[in-house]
Amino acid sequence: MNIAVPIKFVPDLVEEMEIDSSTGKLDRTFMRLVPNELDEHALEQALILKERHGGTVAVITLDTGDVDEALFTAVAKGADRAIKIAGEGYAEGVTSHACADLLAEALKDGSFDLILAGTQAVDDLDGSVGALLAAKLGIPYVGYATKVVEAGGKVVATKEYPGGLLAEIEVSTPAVIGIQAAEKPPRYVVTSLVMDAMKKAKIDEAEGAAAGLEGAAEITGMRPPEAGKGAEMIDGDANAVAEKLVGILKEKGVL
Amino acid sequence: MAQDVWVNIETLRGEVTEISYTMLAAGKAIAKGLGGSLRAVLLGGNVKGLAGKLGAADSVTVVDHPALADFNPDAHLLALTDLAKKGAPRAFLFGQTASGTDLACGLAAKFGFPVASPCRTFKVEGGEILFEAVTCGGKIIADGKLPGPTGVAIVMPGGYKPEEAMVGGSPKVDEASPESDLGAARTRFRAYIEPDTSDVDISKIPILISVGRGIGQKENIDAAKELAAALGGEVSSSRPIVDQGWLPTSRLVGKSGKSVKPKLYLALGISGSPEHMEGLPSWETLVAINTDQKAPIYDVATFGAAVDVLELIPKLTEKVKAAKG
Question: Which residues of chain B make contact with A217, given a CB cutoff of 8 A?
């Protein structure tokens, strides 16, 4: 099967999030963007399918800035092709709807049997890209998948419900599957192979339309969460904290 | 219909799920603000009997069909499309769940309805539906408006008490038959795979030592296990640990794992994302250890300390052992 994997770049949650007081939105000036973690799982699942059944894997992303390294990393891991769509306003943040529109335009020629996307992204505010993309392409969608196998020209997605319950859903292709986790953790690739890919591989570049806001509910402002009562913070080094915790555990009847 | 609110009722193996009640509670508040009525949309196979459990709604529309007996994304979407064609409400609520998210975007894109996600609370002001969405792992709250004439909202738990909507009653029940051929659905439910029950059931363990991304690497989980043993508890975890294969799914606390109500929850290197906190409806004492002082878990924890978990674990284990003699 020929598989496409869209990669969405999202704020790195390890970094501090600031709100731009003039716009009321996330301040993107110094924001570090990283590939959405579940998209990395989607790539892993695509590579597993390629290894098992043959076919090709293409990664595709909107050029929100500094995306090349992630694309070359995907190539170093085993992707056959990397596509970057450049267009106006992408760096200021793209809604899931706009992202799905642009990806649908790039993928509508039907050369892909399967599209694997992260089932959600940490910054989704108007639904998820994979589900919207399926609807725009007029093909079926199954999300929350933790495994995908090929079976007789179709695919079977293992869908995850709460409490560890799973369901097998058979899906006709072409289809979009939203990945919650790959069968195995995403593979690691050494820097030298990424450097190698940078020298040898080429990123296909395409022009996309300007990113609009249609389809997304209007966001009027953003803010940090209201601080609750908050935790009673224990100061000191690890030894002092351990000492105090033992006292707390005794007091609470745990010890 | 223009001011009505519809809720997509989710069922799993013949039971109405908790998020459905959360959405009914949310839907009731929105419908009241708009002066509209609240309709529960119940799709399934042989589900008519569940309508009596949806007393919070003013009416229930039941679509009963064998193809809808277990969640089948494309068949459910066809059936919902048939309903929405006849007249769509002001707001249509879906759960931020394995089945709700499959349907919400598909239906919205077919009709061009705008989408808001993941919404925690709503209010109606001057005839407008305002929502509060939780994003960036719980570090940011986004405020927005759900535009009309029809808007789709994907709802997460936490904003409304499901118990408030768990009322019986006799709402008006309409039965609808799908006009589309559900047999033409491009997806098909095959079978359930039952969870592994050979491991301990962490929902019954009072002392949980829970590890998250901050644990760094697999080898460090042994130290957490030693601490759990010293305290007479068990090890549990957040999603990244299970995805890495460092602990089995049976140890997962959160949306896709177990829901736990421990006496002590010691969160080691867990940030407290909304998905994780879904698995922690209550606790007696929550101790959070995380070097990120802005981790959302500190907003709810009883005690916290911004020290390195790898430094803390052996020292705490040693002191616990000493205290126990």
Answer: 114-116, 131, 144-147, 151, 153
Task: Identify whether residues B29 and B118 lie together within a single domain.
Answer: yes
Contacts of B285 in chain A (CB under 8 A): 248, 252, 254
* Domain count of the fold of chain B: 2
Instruction: Note whether B130 and B100 are same-domain residues.
Output: yes
Which residue range(s) make up the domain with B318? 202-323
Nearest by CB to residue B141, choosing from A131, A156, A223, is A223
Terminal-residue alpha carbon distance, chain A: 57
Q: CA-to-CA distance for A229 and B203, rounded, in angstroms? A: 26
CB contacts of A139 in chain B (<8 Å) are 186
| Residues B214 and B68 reside in one and the same domain | no
Of B131, B186, B319, Cβ closest to residue A246? B319
Sheet with A114-118, edge to edge strand ranges: A203-207, A81-86, A56-62, A2-7, A114-118, A175-179, A141-151, A154-160, A166-171, B187-193
pLDDT score at B178? 94
Same domain, B258 and B170: no
The pLDDT of residue B121 is: 98
At A62 the pLDDT is 97
> How confident is the prediction for chain B on average, in pLDDT?
96
Q: Are the C-beta atoms of residues A36 and A91 closer than 8 Å to each other?
A: no
CB contacts, 8 Å: B133 with chain A: 125
Say if the Cβ atoms of A215 and B108 lie within 8 Å: yes
Two structure tokens written together for A144:
């929350």
- Chain B positions touching A128 (Cβ under 8 A) are 101, 105, 117
- B275: nearest CA partner in chain A: A122
**Closest residue of B to A127, CA-based?**
B117
Nearest C-alpha in A relative to B294 = A16
ipTM above 0.85, yes or no: yes
pLDDT exceeds cutoff 80 at B139: yes
Give chain A's residues under pLDDT 70: none
Q: Which residue in A17, A125, A246 is closest to B117 by CB distance?
A: A125
Q: What is the mean pLDDT of residues B168-196?
A: 95
> d(Cα A3, Cα A175) in Å, to the nearest integer?
10
Q: Of B119, B149, B184, which residue is a domain's last?
A: B184
Buried b (16+ CB within 10 A) or exposed e, A13-38: beeebeeeeeeebbebeebebbbbbb
| pLDDT tens, position by position, B9-18 | 999 999 999 9
- In whole angstroms, what is the distance from residue B248 CA to residue B226 CA? 17
B105 and A135 within 8 Å at the Cβ level: the answer is: yes
Residues B178, B244 share a domain:
no
List the alpha helices (DSSP H) in chain B. Answer: 18-34, 73-85, 100-111, 221-231, 239-243, 274-277, 297-300, 309-324
pLDDT at residue B1, as a whole number: 62
Q: Are residues B171 and B210 in the same domain?
A: no
Nearest by CB to A225, from B106, B117, B141: name it: B141
